Amino acid sequence: MRRPGQGFTLLELLVVLVLLGALAALVAPAVSRGIDAWRLRVAAQELEQQVARLPLQARAAGVTLHLGGEAAWPAAVPPIVIEGAGIEWLSPLVVRSNGFCEAGALRLVHDASRRDYDVLSPDCRLRRRASGAADDEGGAAP
Question: I want to staple 133 with a disulfide (CB 3.0 to 4.6 A). Which of 16, 77, 126, 129 is the partner?
């Protein structure tokens, strides 16, 4: 004789697995977008830190940095490297040997996302441009 409450039937287990699969299919895209947004924020913070160091590096090396355009990266200063991301110079940036930063603009490209920044004078702080210039998803802005 079968005792009640002995366990689950195979059909009940399959129904639960199908429901869990459907739930995972609904949640996975949102989790993926969240991870991509987090990676973009980390890359943006790293970019901000590395650009903020440029005046100190120019002063320490005693050189004027001409970044972007046709200029080659100066050997006396370590290049800006951000894991998994790239930088496009929208307008050249000049950092004088005394640490003074002339205004410029750059774009952070990470996977399909991009963010445009103005590099502010005199201290090379970054200010994110309005989302109409470029958006985080790489497509047209709303």
Answer: 129
Half-sphere exposure of 24 (CA within 13 A, CB side): 6
Q: Which residues contact 36 (CB under 8 A, 6 or more apart)?
A: 111, 113
Q: Is the pLDDT of residue 91 over 50?
A: yes
Given a contact cutoff of 8 angstroms between Cβ atoms, the answer to whether 123 and 104 are in contact is: no
Global pTM reads 0.72
Strand ranges inside 35-80, DSSP E: 65-67
Of 117, 63, 116, nearest to 94 by C-alpha is: 63
SS3 content of the chain, % helix, strand, coil (to 5): 35, 20, 40
